[in-house]
Structures are given as structure tokens and as C-alpha cells.
Design goal:
Elements lengths: L12 E3 L10 E3 L2 E5 L3 E5 L6 E6 L3 E8 L2 E6 L5 E5 L3 E2 L6 E3 L3 E5 L8 E6 L3 E2 L3 E3 L2 E4 L2 E4 L3 E3 L7 H7 L10 E2 L2 E2 L1 H11 L8 H7 L2 E2 L11 E4 L2 E5 L4 E6 L4 E6 H12 L5 E4 L5
Parallel strand pairs: 1-2
Antiparallel strand pairs: 3-6, 3-9, 4-5, 6-7, 7-8, 10-13, 10-17, 11-12, 14-15, 15-16, 18-19, 20-25, 21-22, 21-25, 22-23, 23-24
Amino acid sequence: MTDRRFLAANARVAESGLRGRVVAPTYTDGTVARIALPHVDLCRAPSGARDKQMLLGQGFRVLERHEGWAFGVDMADGYVGYLPETVLDAAPRPTHRIGQRSAHLYSAPDFKSPERGLLSFLSGVTVTAKADGFHHTPQGYIAAQHLIPAEHALPDIAATAMLFLGTPYLWGGNTGTGIDCSGLIQMALWAAGHTCPRDSDLQEAQLGLELPENAPLKRGDLIFWAGHVGMMLDPETLIHANAHHMRVATEPLAGATARIGAREFGEITARKRLEPVP
């Protein structure tokens, strides 16, 4: 059965690569647009439930515009869905990204000037000028300390996960104001330059090498349950976005395993390492 999360087709249009496999009135390669708001929900249907969120500057390949909605593909992870047409524009590829949990947009190159908004980690912006410790972008001024070059990698995925400590839990969230378990893992891996699918079942299937049950854990290892994922900060401590604490929290893996096994997702299904196992 085709996974609807990646089926780039609806009743009116399909991606060109699906010709011969999916029947559609129209086939298209689509056109590239970018997210123009700080963040937006990618929905499984027009006005439907949120599957995930997309951030300012991220690329979206539009296959169809219909009745105010754009249907297409998130270019970062291949997820298919619907966005309001009004959240898209033809902005150039971002030159920089937000390098911390969140950053303010200011109306002038002055930290006392009125703020215009808030951008989340890895949001993409195009810097057009630099002045007085601030970078100017079409959205406003951003403190230079809050930006990293677009291609710069943050290799310590556990340190990146810790940026989100205390962030409220939000199903389908990908931002510093709300995030879920698999969103936390995806953001940490994206920042390090890894490809990473959005949902925990896909992450379990596609990421890393499985550890033997008795192998010692270390920083950056991923722990999976059926419907949940967390990351190790050290051999004993887990960080995860979870609905028990309703935030990104750290706790001993042993305690989390006992609670999750008894009340939530059952037993651990996999322990994964992103580098080759010795």
C-alpha cells in the first residue's frame, strides 16, 4: 500500500514521476515556492489536520493551486500535503538560518527597537546588509549572534536537542514554541546535515544501525517505542518531547522506560546509533 504521506497525487493532479503508477487527469513537475511566514501547518487535506509544520524559507514544490490551497511536497523530507496559497512566495534560497531555539525580528538594528515577530530554529532568511551587530533581512533585523550560514552544520545533535528543553509539547510541531517527539529528532538531525524523515516510525525504519540489547548507550543514540522516540544525552539520561510532561524534558531512561512501558507505548522497539556500531 502506498504511504499517503508521500503520495504526491490527488484527484486532479499527480507528480510526473508517478505517471504509469497513478491515474490522474494532469501530471506535473511542479514549481518551487518558499514559506513566507515564520511557520505554517502542513495539512493532510485543505483545512484538515496538521501533519507537521514548515518554517520560513523552506522549499515547497507546488503541484497544484486550487480554491486557495497549494498542494505539493516539502522539499526537505518529501512529505506531501496542503498549505494556504497565501503562505508561499518566490523568495530566493536563504543565505542564513536561525541558529538557536528562537530569535526576534527587530524593526531597526537596535535591540531596543520594537520587535516584529519571532523566528524558530533553522528558519531560513536572506541577509541583504549588515549593520551594528545586526543583519538585515526582508522580514526585519536579526541579531548577528542568532544567525548561522545556511550550509553551516551543528554536529552535536544532543546539544541541539537541548536547545528545545522546556519547549511545550505540540503534536506535529517543529518549532521553538511547540514540538513533538519526532519533530525534535528531525530538527536536531537536520541541523547536523543529516537527512531525516518526519515521523517516528519512519525514523526507526530509516535511521542508524540497531544496537544489541546489552550494548552500552551513549550520547546521541536514539530510543524508539511504537509511536515515540527520544535521544540519549549520556548513557543514562533521555531527552524527549512527550505528552506526560507536556514539554521537552530530560529524565533517567530507566524511569521513562518503566512509565512508558506500563502506561503509554509499551516496550522499547529499537535502540539506534547514527554511526557504525563497532
